[in-house]
Amino acid sequence: APFHLVSPAASRRTARMVVRSTVMLLVASSSGAAAVALGSRPAPSSAARRGGALQMEAGETVLDVSDLCAAVGETPILKGVNLKVRKGEVHAIMGPNGSGKSTLSKVIVGHPAYEVTGGSALFEGEDLLELEPEERAQQGVFLAFQYPVEIPGVANNDFLRLAVNKRRQAQGLDEYDPIEFFGVLSEKMSQVSMSPDFLGRDVNSGFSGGEKKRNEILQLALLEPSLAILDETDSGLDIDALKTVAAGVNAYRGEGNGIVLITHYQRLLDYIKPDFVHVMSDGEIVRSGGPELALELESDGYAFLDAGARSDA
């Protein structure tokens, strides 16, 4: 279930303090934006960044994960993940429950519950594992969770402007004043079919499932990250809400960013066309292919994983 940061009766100041103290614990859509907005340290300079090695003619490498291993306590979860995402690409990650898909997303953004035990992760050539969660967010890493958090006591409009201005500050850009921001915000809200009424409401408080997901995609559109990881964004959405969310993602999609979609279902990929599809099993990416792989999984499921296990026995 969604995690509530503070009680509905908390004051705005108290809510901001609570968000600040829990940035390290929740790195996701609204809390990922909170990492941008409330990170206390400036983002490190990107002047010395380098691109990863290319395997084909494509855009600059935005994410390069190599033999990444991670654990919770004594339990290993990621067991050597390899993934390279270039700007302009959309990668879909599918797999059975418990295969490590969501863990991979949390490790990339720096969730403190997970210990990296091996391998590397580069973001635009920089060692991602050396950055705190708020630094990763300010640099341009965005994660949207399956269950967006609620932040009672913090108005959506204030929250969004604070997050966007912190991101702009990290980019060396001037901050928006309230009037400038409203102009930008109005344009982005139209992309996700959100009413201005949502601006005065507390972040995600009382929102329906579809409204929370649209609010996530609104944050994505405003923050314009270089890397967006969407963890089961399609979960719990009816077809109309799914189309609206997909339209927002497709409006963001472009040559300047990379997208990783984590999903169980082909239906999301009917609206957000992936360039690559990967299958995770037991903490590893065990198969990769084009969009046709998702169709195969929709038809045949993960029987090939059982067949592989039997052949190894």
From TrEMBL:
InterPro entries: AAA+_ATPase, ABC_transporter-like_ATP-bd, ABC_transporter-like_CS, FeS-cluster_ATPase_SufC, P-loop_NTPase. It comes from the Eukaryota. Keywords: ATP-binding, Nucleotide-binding. It holds the Pfam family ABC_tran. Residues 63-307 form the ABC transporter domain. GO terms for molecular function: ATP binding; ATP hydrolysis activity. PANTHER family: ABC TRANSPORTER I FAMILY MEMBER 6, CHLOROPLASTIC. This is ABC transporter domain-containing protein. It comes from Emiliania huxleyi (Coccolithophore). The lineage of its organism: Eukaryota, Haptista, Haptophyta, Prymnesiophyceae, Isochrysidales.
